[in-house]
Design a protein that fits this description.
Blueprint: H1 4-25, H2 28-41, H3 48-70, H4 82-92, H5 96-137, H6 140-151, H7 155-184, E1 190-191, H8 194-219, H9 229-255, H10 266-278, H11 285-308, H12 310-317, H13 321-346, H14 350-379, H15 388-406, E2 410-411, H16 413-431, H17 436-443
Organism: Rosa chinensis
Pfam families: Na_Ca_ex
Family: Belongs to the Ca(2+):cation antiporter (CaCA) (TC 2.A.19) family. Cation/proton exchanger (CAX) subfamily.
Length: about 450
């Protein structure tokens, strides 16, 4: 029996290697590269050394092509060197203001590439698993930063950064999409499927309810057990919200997926379907998994420097921590959503833009926030859903404003401009808002 284990492990490794090679060769470019040495050498002329040399050349081509596709094909990736630069600045100068700024720039393209790798992997998994992947990795950057902040006991930074990501998606990202799409199509009114907007608005209002009751319980001093009932209610509500989000995914992907068909003219809908059929993955399944691991690890590494530099950046720039958490941190995670939403809106694919902006807000409110509460529970941190009165009121008003603007299923540049102006008001409000509890946490 002792001799069987190495043999079995060797067969498993060989199967994984052959599966990876088959995935690579399924891409047309690699098929051509593989057939070239075969034609040159002829049938039956392979020796062990020549085959090994050909395999080495193939692997080098795979690596070079993958790096070119993932890293060198996007202009936003020019910001990647700022990540290592932030580490050098931290080591040699210790200036937290510059460390925070450079880390913020360095993580931004990584967040976009993380979304790209997730989309590529979804080609191989099908719509159901692909939807789960997007739900998991769609806001991975925000969750990674939040987990590191939880680790350092910066609970208010976690709450405010997640809140800021919701506000940014609902007001700034959606507003820019409506505004740019309305400018391109001024001669007509753009339309989108109201079913998606209604369901997401309902989920967002449910999230507001989950945040509102712990805050009301706290400020009315009506807790049965002071300091404990609020936390217990938050943890119970978080589990309910996670369950509701899981049912929503099933509803969206399996039960009622016909409700989410884009609402366009028949011709444009057929054109979109034909475009979707023509889409093919640019990298293989195993390449997507490897790049997901690389991007997630690098984001996690830089997030440590980002979180540690928040207090120093607040002091160096004379900016409240609440403004950094609500306005500046969400720029990292929402850069990809911002660009994608605008691009699809300018192509008159408003349903996709709406899904990017409102869908991300729903993911954070119904999955990201309660997930952090549960993680804090596991880590022994008293993370709750009491986001304080100012933040909860801001979210409640934002959800109401967006829900009213989406109820008729149409958009134009004026609606987009209103959302952008609302975001500027929110940003100015947090610029003059000082949160003493966040400052106390950063100082400990």
């Amino acid at each position: 029996m002792s001799y069987m284990l190495p043999v079995e492990m060797e067969s498993i490794d060989n199967e994984s290697i052959h599966e990876f090679k088959d995935e690579i060769l399924s891409i047309p470019e690699m098929k051509a590269q593989k057939s070239q040495p075969i034609q040159e050498l002829g049938e039956g002329s392979f020796s062990g050394g020549l085959q090994a040399k050909g395999d080495d050349k193939m692997w080098r081509n795979v690596v070079c092509r993958s790096i070119k596709t993932v890293v060198l094909s996007n202009k936003l990736n020019m910001l990647m060197p700022f990540g290592p630069l932030a580490i050098f600045v931290h080591i040699f100068t210790g200036h937290n203001g510059w460390v925070f700024f450079l880390t913020l720039l360095g993580i931004t393209p990584l967040a976009e590439r993380l979304g790209y790798a997730t989309e590529q992997l979804a080609f191989y998994t099908g719509p159901t698993v692909g939807g789960l992947l997007n739900a998991t990795f769609g806001n991975a950057t925000e969750l990674i930063i939040s987990i590191y902040a939880l680790k350092h006991g910066m609970l208010r930074v976690v709450q405010q950064s997640l809140l800021g990501s919701i506000l940014s998606n609902m007001l700034l990202v959606l507003g820019c999409a409506f505004f740019c799409g309305g400018l391109v199509f001024q001669d007509k009114e753009q339309v989108f499927n109201k079913a998606t907007a209604v369901v997401n608005s309902g989920l967002l209002l449910m999230a507001v309810m989950g945040l509102l009751f712990p805050a009301v319980l706290h400020y009315t001093h009506t807790e049965v057990h002071f300091g404990k009932s609020e936390l217990a209610l938050s943890r119970f509500s978080s589990c309910i919200m996670l369950l509701a989000y899981a049912i929503y995914l099933f509803f969206q992907l399996k039960s009622q997926k016909n409700l989410y068909v884009p609402l366009n003219e028949e011709g444009s809908q057929n054109e979109e379907n034909s475009d979707d059929d023509d889409e093919t993955p640019e990298i293989s399944k195993w390449e997507s998994i490897i790049w997901l691991i690389i991007m997630t690890s690098w984001i996690s590494f830089l997030s440590e420097y980002l979180v540690n530099a928040i207090k120093g950046a607040s002091v160096a720039w004379k900016i409240p921590i609440s403004f950094i958490s609500v306005i500046l941190l969400p720029i990292v995670g929402n850069a990809a959503e911002h660009a994608s939403a605008i691009m699809f809106a300018m192509k008159d694919k408003l349903d996709i833009s709406l899904g990017v902006a409102i869908g991300s807000s729903t993911q954070i409110s119904m999955f990201g926030i309660p997930f952090c509460v549960v993680i804090g529970w596991i880590m022994g941190r008293p993370m709750d859903l009491n986001f304080q009165l100012f933040e909860t009121a801001t979210l409640f008003i934002t959800v109401l404003v967006v829900a009213f603007l989406l109820q008729d299923g149409t958009s134009n540049y004026f609606k987009g401009l209103m959302l952008i102006l609302c975001y500027l008001i929110v940003a100015a409000s947090f610029f003059v808002h000082v949160d003493p509890s966040a400052a106390d946490e950063a100082g400990t």
